[in-house]
Design brief:
The structure is a homodimer.
Chain A: H1 8-22, H2 29-36, H3 50-73, H4 78-95, H5 97-103, H6 109-113, H7 117-128, H8 138-157, H9 170-186
Chain A binds a DNA duplex through residues 1, 3-6, 28-31, 38-42, 44-46, 49-50.
Chain lengths: 191, 191
DNA sequence: GCAAATTCCTAAGTCGTTTAGGTTCTGGGA
DNA sequence: TCCCAGAACCTAAACGACTTAGGAATTTGC
């Protein structure tokens, strides 16, 4: 009777996949144990508790997303970089809604500081260097981009754009918004 | 032995208050029943189920937020209106984090169409009329503002800005972002 | 081939959601 | 006033999710 071979890593991966299928919040010990053909209690040899697992999935998703963004960014600059970065972000969220939700899981300070979230900020900062924005304003610009990307993507995921009076697709709005952001960064208003 | 006098309305209000204290996701039948001095099962005379209650709280929050925004908007126009509207949004989210989270609860199409969410869109559209933006682009601008506001506010709630290398407060970034949005709307790039 | 460490199990307790069905309170008509 | 219909509340119980304790089985390394 061979053992299923559960490990913390496989648990994290499977939880991430499950999250994409049924939603991050619906990933449960029961469902996870079932997909390994194992009893619930057995999982606790590998994870401390459910929160611990969610953190692991969050870190996994953050790293994966950072990798995707880095790939998209490679060799690009200026508006090209901005769009590629933004698209990588949105594509990931649409391809992996559960993992994206996981990446939004609120981490405690030290965990966050040691996570790939740092790379996200660094990449955003790299994009900003393609524009003439005072160093002191970078933090504001980073927050602007982060807010807009995350806001759009999460509203899109929640289908909050579904009932706009206008039947226009979200793709068109997205590229328009990137145009606007590019212009805004280009003509960054002085303090 | 006087009866507690539970009603759907009081349940909704209490759930909203509770959400602000302990978080929208942590509002449970048990906690709610306890705060009314009543058994769990008794709540089911007033609501169909937990999801039903969450929807009620979402509608309540959406309406309350729309009222606050409308107040803020009264008598203002141009950038003044934009900033007042945005501030109303952010203030509400900070004063009532649980209700704000509730207002993000994904509603089904018909419920959403009958909700105060419609007023939110209308108010945003009203603000846009203060700028020279082609009617056809309004939907994009609405989505831009909605994304940025929601994105900022939710990242702020998740304390995602906490560990930015820069120790700068979020207030400064917020007002800067509003400046940038104002400029972007003013110099709306042609298609 | 054995001992230790690991993996997995059973059993059980807690908490949250929900239903079924019974009891008690309340208001309005006879 | 009395009563009775319907509303408000209850007990009991099932189910699912999370978690711990302690034991059995399997794998690993010597």
């Amino acid at each position: 009777m061979k053992r299923p071979g559960v490990t913390a890593e496989r648990l994290t991966r499977t939880a991430a996949e499950l999250a994409d299928e049924i939603g991050f919040d619906n990933v449960t010990v029961t469902a996870l144990a079932r997909s390994f053909g194992v009893k619930e209690a057995s999982l606790y040899s590998h994870i401390r508790n459910m929160r611990d697992l969610r953190v692991k999935v969050a870190l996994f998703a953050l790293a994966e997303l950072a990798d995707a963004a880095a790939d998209a960014l490679a060799g690009r600059s200026g508006k090209d970089a901005l769009v590629a970065f933004a698209d990588a972000y949105r594509d990931y969220a649409r391809r992996h809604p559960g993992r994206y939700a996981a990446s939004r899981f609120s981490l405690d300070p030290q965990t966050a500081a040691a996570s790939a979230a740092v790379r996200h900020v660094e990449m955003t900062r790299a994009i900003l260097r393609g524009y003439r924005i005072p160093e002191a304003d970078h933090i504001d610009a980073i927050r602007l981009l982060g807010s807009t990307f995350h806001g759009f993507v999460s509203l899109e995921a929640a289908e909050a754009f579904r009932h706009s009076s206008d039947a226009r697709g979200t793709d068109a709005s997205w590229s328009r918004i990137l145009d606007v952001l590019h212009t805004a960064l280009t003509d960054w208003p002085p303090a």
